[in-house]
Amino acid sequence: MKSAGLKGTVSIELVHEALRAAALRNMDISGVLEIARLDRDLLNAPRARISAAAYSRMWVALADLMDDEFFGLDSHGLRRGSYALMTRAAVSSENLEHALRRILRFLHATLDDFRGELVRSADEARVILHDGGVLRRLFGYGTWFILVHGLACWLVHRRIPLREMRFRCPPPADDSHYRTRFCEDVKFNAQTTHITFASELLDLKIAESPQTVDTFLRAAPANLLVKYRNDSSTSAQVRHRLRSQMPDAWPELEKLAQELCVSGTTLQRRLQQEGLSYQRVKDDLRRDIAIDLLSSASLTVAEVAARTGFQEPSAFHRAFKKWTGVSPGSYRSSAHTRE
């Protein structure tokens, strides 16, 4: 059970955002959905979620279809293979600052509408994403930072913790993806789009080598989406604790707080600061575990219901539809028909 729900899920809103440019160009996305093993019914369910693995498969298939690793978000685009070239250019750098400046120069030479700038001060490093004064889609800003931050983390073989993230654009209906992937301090309608982190991290030596590039690229983009997520948040710590137990054995708030060496009031307040409650964290984790397990053709819906702490499949069916807007069968049938 510990591995189930580990990688989390992605909202269907991000799937639509990724597919948008292909749809506007009247491209046939049926092959992309087939490779990602996504049922079209899920696209019509506003609250639906898909596994991170499915989203990664979709990412690769869509990049292949469009010959663009930036999904049509830039007027020039990022031709297939560009990210590999950028990785090979960055890995021979001396330290993180040198590597980041190479990465930003490469992307500036490749993309027309986005330009990154690294500003270093005594205690803070800031990567500013300039957009030419034209407000871009949030998905474009976010994807650019996933490509840059993910590669930077891999180069130094550790997560680079972010202090804050700001976007010039308005907030989405659900900003959990950005808080989970980057940091808790995410704000919108800001003057600039940027991330900040401790400047001393720029002096980290590059820990990878040209010999390890191919392994990294084979794991992309799943490693970019999942491996370097923000795991220091209170909600991430709570999820980590809960994943080690069966759902029907999950502790009450006070008991979990004792295990985390804080008071129940403090734990509740910290979760509220992240826009969550303990019940919401439990529901979201049950949902993610269920989606992971439903993606396995070896388990029936009834078996998944039992493993997620439901004594009756009918209760699980109602809860799952409440969480995602679709029935468990939509995921179950998708796994059977597309594998």
UniProtKB/TrEMBL annotation:
Record's keyword annotation contains Transcription: yes
- Membrane-traversing stretches: none
- What is the scientific name of the source organism? Variovorax paradoxus (strain S110)
Lineage top rank: taxon: Bacteria
Sorted alphabetically, the keyword list is: DNA-binding, Transcription, Transcription regulation
Designated name of the protein: Transcriptional regulator, AraC family
Q: Does the entry feature the keyword Transcription, yes or no?
A: yes
Query: Record's PANTHER family?
Result: HTH-TYPE TRANSCRIPTIONAL REGULATOR GADX, HTH-TYPE TRANSCRIPTIONAL REGULATOR VQSM
